[in-house]
Structure formats: C-alpha cells, structure tokens
C-alpha cells in the first residue's frame, strides 16, 4: 500500500485510483467479487457496486479481516496509524 497513486502518462480513458484503508477494514470495496457489475459515471462523480443489500450483508458476515503484511518498521507504523487518503493519509 502506498500513500499516493501514480498513473503512467500512457494511461487513457477513465482511470480510477482509490487509496484508503477501507478494504482492509471491511468496507464495501472489500466485498467486491469477480464478475460484480460496477458503474462508473465521471459526470455524476459516481462509482456504484450493483449488488443487492442482502448479498452484501451475506458477504459482510463471511468477511474476515486479513492479517497485516507489515507489523514492524515504517510500514508497520503506516498500517497501524494512517488515515484515509481523502483526509490526507496522515499518521498521528
């Protein structure tokens, strides 16, 4: 995980980059599965997972938080203390 995203200058079309602990903490992004329909509407600033609430509840109930890959050193501190990128991804 890094605190910022980098996209190649060769990238074209819509590119979505999201850096936040949401998936690791069990947010909706952690529940996305292969084959799910996701709508991206740049004009409406919308990213929508098209999965019913009942299915999401089942996935959430079965979800288990993974062990952190890094527990020591700078990356261990980052994993334990970093906040969401939308608020600056700063550590306390």
Describe the structure.
With 92 residues, this protein is α+β, with helices and mostly antiparallel strands. The protein has a domain at 28-87. Helices cover 21% and strands 9% of the residues. It has helices spanning 53-62, 73-81; strands at 38-41, 46-49. The chain has a two-stranded antiparallel sheet with strand order 1-2. The longest helix has 10 residues, at 53-62. The two termini are 18 Å apart.
Explain briefly what this protein structure is.
The chain has 2 helices and 2 strands; from the N terminus they run ββαα. The chain has 92 residues and is α+β, with helices and mostly antiparallel strands.
Labels describing this entry:
92 residues, alpha+beta, two-stranded antiparallel sheet, 2 helices, 9% strand, globular
Radius of gyration: 15 Å
What letter string, H or E per element, gives the SSE order?
EEHH
Oligomeric state of the chains in view:
single chain
**N/C terminus separation:** 18 Å
* Unreliable residue runs: none
Shape: globular
- Sheet with most strands: strand arrangement: 1-2
Q: On the 0-100 scale, what is the average pLDDT?
A: 82
* Helical residue percent band: 10-25%
Structural class: alpha+beta
Helix count from the secondary structure assignment: 2
Percent of residues in beta strands: 5-15%
Number of E-type strands: 2
Largest sheet: 2 strands, antiparallel
């Amino acid at each position: 995980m890094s605190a910022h995203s980098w996209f190649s200058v060769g990238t074209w079309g819509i590119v979505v980059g999201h850096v936040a602990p949401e998936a690791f903490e069990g947010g909706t992004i952690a529940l996305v599965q292969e084959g799910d329909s996701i709508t991206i509407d740049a004009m409406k600033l919308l990213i929508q997972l098209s999965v019913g609430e009942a299915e999401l509840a089942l996935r959430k109930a079965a979800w288990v938080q993974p062990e952190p890959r890094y527990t020591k050193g700078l990356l261990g501190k980052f994993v334990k203390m970093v906040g969401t990128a939308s608020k600056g991804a700063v550590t306390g």
